[in-house]
Amino acid sequence: MLKSPGAAWSLGLGTLIGITPMLLAYSKPLRHGRPVDPFDIALSYEIWLGGMFCLAAVLATRLPERSWRLATLAGLGLPAGFLLFFAVTPATIPNLWPLGLILCGIIGLPAAFAGALAGSTVSRFLPVH
What we know:
By secondary structure, this protein is mainly alpha-helical. The protein is built from 5 helices and no strands. It has one domain. It is about 75% helix and about 0% strand. About 35% of the residues are buried.
């Protein structure tokens, strides 16, 4: 159970960032009778990396004392979005979905941790209100 609203926002927005490229890939024309794989589109990585970085940076600036927990939840939003996408569209599940799940963690978590580091550094220079 997520006890703080920051944690719920972190996981929810991370999942939204994670599922966006998958929805964009699914809306493209079919290739060989199957939808385009979101891992084959360069824009997907830009959305995932930039989105996770910015989300974690904003959350860490706002709540610097919990920045690493929120970054972990934001980074885990990408694997959550991956699972949610395949739960909604079961016909598109690839054979190597566990590898895709691991790859989502490898993509999402470092970007979120870098954003948390940047956000917590920026929060030190902001005036306390």
